[in-house]
Amino acid sequence: xxxxxxxxxxxxxxxxxxxxxxxxxxxxxxxxxxxxxxxxxxxxxxxxxxxxxxxxxxxxxxxxxxxxxxxxxxxxxxxxxxxxxxxxxxxxxxxxxxxxxxxxxxxxxxxxxxxxxxxxxxxxxxxxxxxxxxxxxxxxxxxxxxxxxxxxxxxxxxxxxxxxxxxxxxxxxxxxxxxxxxxxxxxxxxxxxxxxxxxxxxxxxxxxxxxxxxxxxxxxxxxxxxxxxxxxxxxxxxxxxxxxxxxxxxxxxxxxxxxxxxxxxxxxxxxxxxxxxxxx
Length: 280
Known about the structure:
Blueprint: E1 4-10, E2 16-27, E3 30-34, E4 57-59, E5 79-84, H1 88-97, E6 101-104, H2 113-123, E7 127-130, H3 140-155, E8 160-164, H4 180-184, E9 187-189, H5 191-201, H6 210-217, H7 222-271
């Protein structure tokens, strides 16, 4: 990779809990990469928190006007938006809409449940708006992440609704990209309504271009996220085995050194001893 932008991820207290780099020239691993310690470093820091979750971003929606720039779903007074991405995109959405926005890589909010629940409590949320990326309805993997997040939220007692601004294709733009006119015309769908529209637009006529599209537009796909988590877990297991091996190696090196020193001292004692008066 070449140069890029350092993108911090903030929690509700405004503390940085993780960092990603957005590369200017994306290659095999996409535009966004997590910052972590070198793989050959002992006790290296990883991108995971102490509870093993990947960081999710929390952005407080402060704008110059106190009136949100999008309509609020009926029956909600303080909804929170769920968006893909952990830094630039959810931050931009929060400043455009005036609503607190929580962002997770690949839309995998449900994979960081401790943070998600704490963030919703901090926000005093009375409902949740899932904001699907433009064109995401044809990506079954992303839809699966939205559904799992929805089910988790509902198990906690939150009402969940889906924001829809006609984002059938990427040309329409995500919530951080679409025009102001589209922002003002956002509608809210139930999951069943969204699923019906999603089914009507999904089919064999859509080839599996999702991974390439995700790389093109800078958001990691679900497959990349899962692969990353698996790689991190494997690396942590390797690190633990490496540490155990190094501990044992250090012990044996110490033991070997001790025996060598003992042998030299014993040899010195023998060399300075007169054995002429000893009889066999």
